[in-house]
Structure formats: structure tokens, C-alpha cells
Protein 1
Amino acid sequence: MSKIIKPTWQSDDGRICLYQEDCLKLLPQLEKGRVDTVLTSPPYPGAAMWGMEEDVLLKLNLSCLEFCLEPLRENGVICWQIADVPNGNHGIITTTTTTTTFAAVNLGLKIRGQIIWDKASSNLVPLCFMRRPIVPSLTHEMILIFYKGDWVPREKKSGLGKYKGLMTQSVWRIAAERERDLHVAPFPCELARRCISLWSLEDEVVIDPFMGIGTTGVACIQTGRKFIGIEIEPKYFKIAVKRIKGCLSLGPGNYHRKYSFMGKKGLSLLEDDE
Ligand SMILES: C[S@@+](CC[C@H](N)C(=O)[O-])C[C@H]1O[C@@H](n2cnc3c(N)ncnc32)[C@H](O)[C@@H]1O
């Protein structure tokens, strides 16, 4: 799928190509217009888990958004999953969703929608709960939907299946999954399946430049899409390969079955890695 770099791992049929790389290095090497849909969740600014300054993370986010434009085909869609998080002890909220939206418009992208991902969390203690004004706990994140070029209506019979009703809903209630044991910030596979089903067609190419443990890849297999995944961290890349291999090993027709590579038990499988 790439014109220069060989994938670090690819499936036998070449439909899944994974790169252990810095996405800012790899994206410029992908063929122009090769990608139909981008679905990703960058390490967002303000989240302490990344151990990086807010401005460095914001630069990484915005550079990646810009670098996605060339490989993305005309009329392609970008699903950008981010959040505005309370930053530091004083509960000041980051402005990542707004900044990203302005940056996207400046890059010539059109906005096609915003999904609120309701994380179905309960009983969270609000930050700074003893002081006023309080900062509400973060129980939602956002998926920004951007569009490249002019809107061209596409095939209507696109196999939306059970996701058809979602076309009229901008709030998705999806609980986090147990893959949380494997990564600090994965999104649920259900979230990825919905985005892929709504904004791409079968056999099209979906890319995730911050693929983490490969959730988007698993969702691509389950929905019959091709996938390009990029991850810089070796330990997450390794898990992504395992999960994707595990899903493929179920065989067509069974991809939706839950396979056992989950949780701490799944982590032990990494020990006998080839
Ligand atoms: C929010 S997580 C994505 C999680 C993913 N959606 C999943 O479900 O596993 C962001 C990921 O981007 C990776 N990352 C950070 N900088 C990167 C870069 N320059 N190139 C590629 N990956 C990077 C991090 O290691 C992390 O795994």
C-alpha cells in the first residue's frame, strides 16, 4: 500500500498493513489519494498520561491532521476522536476540539458533523469537588467529522446494517472495554465499527495514524475494510499485531466473535511472541 516503506507487518492478502513508525514520517510517503477514510484518536493535549507538554502534543495532532490530507482521496472523510480535558490541578479545560476544528477549516476541510461519545461512566467524583466553581467530570469525548473537497453523494446501499439508525444520532453511548488493561487510552471497538460503517464502504482503505493496540484494524476486519495502521510505541505495536492476527485467525464469517486476546490473560500471550 505504501510506495516506499515496506510494512513492518502485513496480512497474507495485503489488506492489512501495519507500520511501527512515527506517523509524521510515514504519512508523507504514502501514495497520494490512496486512503478513503481516516479514523484516529491522537494523544490529546492536556492528558498527563503521555508525559508530553500540551503545546508539543497539540503540534503533533495538528501536523498529523495536515499530513493526512495528501494520502486522503478527494471526497474522503476524517473521523478525529479527541477530548477537551481538565489540565493540571486547577481544572482549566483544554480547547483541543475548537483548535482542531479551526485548523481543519484553515486546511480547507469541511465539517460534516460532531459526535458526542458518551462514555457511559457513572459515579465519577468531580475534579476540585470541594471548591467552586466545580469542574464536571469528563464523561464524554468528541469525534469530529471532516470532509475533503466538495460533497459528492455516494452509494446508498452501503451495508450500514444495524448502524443505519445512527445517521440521525449525534450522541453515542458506548462503554469503555476491557482492552483498557492493554493500553492507557484505547477507544471501544464498537466506536470504530460505527465510524467505519458510516463513513466508508466495503473494501475501501481506512488509516489510523495513531493506531495504539489496533482497535481500528480489528473493526476494519470485522466490517470488510482494508487497513493501514501506524504506531510508534513498540509495546503497543506488538499488541496490535497480536490482536489483528487473533481476529483474522477466526476466519471470514466469524470476525465478530469475541476472541480471547483480552485483559491480563491476553497480555501473557505476548511472552511467546515470535
Ligand atoms: C489515544 S492512543 C490511540 C489508541 C487507539 N485508538 C486504540 O484503540 O488502541 C494514541 C497512540 O498514538 C501513539 N503515538 C504517539 N505519537 C505517535 C506518532 N508520532 N506516530 C505514531 N503513533 C504515535 C501512542 O503511542 C498511542 O498508542
Note: The first helix runs from residue 23 to 26.
Protein 2
Amino acid sequence: MIIDREKIKSLAAAQSSNGGYYMSAFVSTSSLENWRKNTPTFLNSAFTEMMKERDFSHEEKRSLEGDLERIRGVLSYDITPQTEGLAVFADQAGGVFERIELPVRFEDRLVVGKSPYLRPLLCVLSLFEPFVVAQVSKDDSHLYLVDELRVVRSEDFTGPYLKSSNQETGEVPVKEYYAANRQESLIDQHHKEVAAAIDKMIEELGIHWVVLNGNHDIVSGFRRALSQRVAARVVGEFPLDATASIKQTISRAREAMKAGRAHGRQALAERIRESLGAGGRGVAGFSDTAGALFRGQVQRLLVDQEYRPSGFRCVECDFVSLTQSDPCPVCGGGMLPVEDAAGEAMRVAVRQGTYVEIGEDIPALKELGEIAGLLRYG
Ligand SMILES: [Zn+2]
């Protein structure tokens, strides 16, 4: 996988030490743009602007200048040609310098805060989630593990039915003739083997989504062989096209995945809307959702892509609020302004292992106040 989710989780938990700050930079390094000239210009002017707007001490400013210098250094010398977007998280005082290079572009941004700003990375993650494509037939099936860009692993399965005839002569030995009469159970046996392999793959690699590909009747039969866990992760199905190359198949699978996930997010918003109120599992609006998140109660967090209210966060305890109250109402710590309070909530969610969903054009989510959560059971 190009994006290391564990790394993002550890970044989400990071706090700058010694009263310092994290600098998070996102820049496009696509060869389509004149980034070698534009990006340093962007960084310099964003930095100057930030120093004017916020009240940093002389020492803080010096430390941030050091971070910026190091980020510029990466841009001058050190970018691989496939990289289209670069994310850097720097905290000189804490000795941290993390870079993530991606094959997709970022909108240029420079953010300074007590923790790394992760929202742009989470948006990329939500567009390029890894998934498994299961191409199934009666006796010849294939699994493909697809990451942000390509197939990273494939497994082939041949069922006992196909094995039972001599492929060169077409003759079927007597013993296998009887086997062929048991075709249905042989297909079942093959499907069970493939289904078990999917279960193992998602368990081992932490994959969340599965797309099925094949003749619809066969796929329907195959679904019966799936474990409950795998069945819950199937987000789409598309028909077999025997003439398609693997590349074409994967591209169609990606489309099916995208449509299935968009539908899933919409269903999540509707489910939250129907379970609001006392005793229900839904929570909506910034203050209630952030409160539930702070108490570790949220299982899935859903945020509208466009929702970026400014707000405040506690430097001690992660409490996030849209309104200023200094000190923190929870722990009495100091409150700092943040330019994207929803982004802060997303960071807290990632740190807790809560699944973050980014919604786009979902009417039910707009009604919920653009941020909502599905709570864990009891
Ligand atoms: Zn606090």
C-alpha cells in the first residue's frame, strides 16, 4: 500500500512538544504544473501571511522558519518523478520530520497547529481505499488486491470440476465422470475455497471493501458461500466481460467500488438521521458529535467534504469547539484557535480508530449539520 494507515494513526496522536508547533505542508509536485517555481513561492507567501495573522513568539517563529527551510529542501532535491503530491509534517523542536509522497495531487496548503493537520490525507485515503476484487466462475476464479494505483497481489483458484477433465484430450475418466455429475457440489466446494481466501485476505491486510465480478447467477450463488464478515463488506458487483484485460476489469471494479461507497455513505447519513435522540445511535451537529467523539463513543464519523468551520481546541485534552471558552471547560487547559475544527475532529477520530467517512453532496448529511456520527453499541 502506498498510504500507510498506521503512520497516519501515529501522526494523529502526535502533539508538538515543548510548547512548539507542527507545520503541515501539502503541495502539488505534478509535472503538469510548473511546481518547481510555484510551490516555493506559495510556501513563502503562506508563511509570511501566517506570521502576520498569528501571534507567535520570536522563538516559535524561528523554529517554524527551520521547519519551512527543511520542507523547501525536500522540494529542491528529493522528489521522485511519479510523485504528484507531497505531504510533510515537521516539528523541529520535537525532532519530527515525516514525508508522504503520493501519486495524486494536493491543493497547496500550509497549516500550523499543535498536531499534524491530516484532513487532505484523509480525503485522498477515502478516494483510494484498497479493496479486493473477486472474479468468480464455476471453477476458475481470481482474487485481486487493488491499492491506490494498481493490483498489488493476485491469487488464482481452480475448482475440482475443471481439474476433473483432461484439458488436452477433453476425455473424462470414469471416476471423474461421476465427479462431473456432482457438478453443483463441486462448484460449491470451489466457491467455499475462494470465499475462505477472501476472508483471510481482509483479515490479514485489514481490507474493508470487496467488489464481485462475474455472471450474475454465479455471483448470486457465490454470495451464499461468503462469511458474514465478508458479506458485510461487499460494496458492488459488475458483470463479467471475457474480452476485458485485467486493467479494464480493475478500472470497472474501481467504478463499482466508488458508486457502492457513495451509496453506503448516503445510507449511513440516513441511518444516523433515523436514530437521533435519546437512546438512539445517531448524533449530529458539531457540538454533539465532537462531544461524543471526545468520550470515545463514535464508531463512524461522517463529515461533509466542504465543511470546514474555524474553531478552538484544547492543547491538553483534544476537546474541540466552535465557540471560544478559555480555559477548556473539560480540563481547564489552554484553548488555541484552529482554522478547521472539523479537521481536528477527524484527527481525533483517526487517533481513536474511528472510521472517518467523507461525504459529498448528501442531502441527509446537510440536514444533520454537515457532521454526524454513528455511536458504538451501549
Ligand atoms: Zn481540555
Note: The longest strand covers residues 151-158.
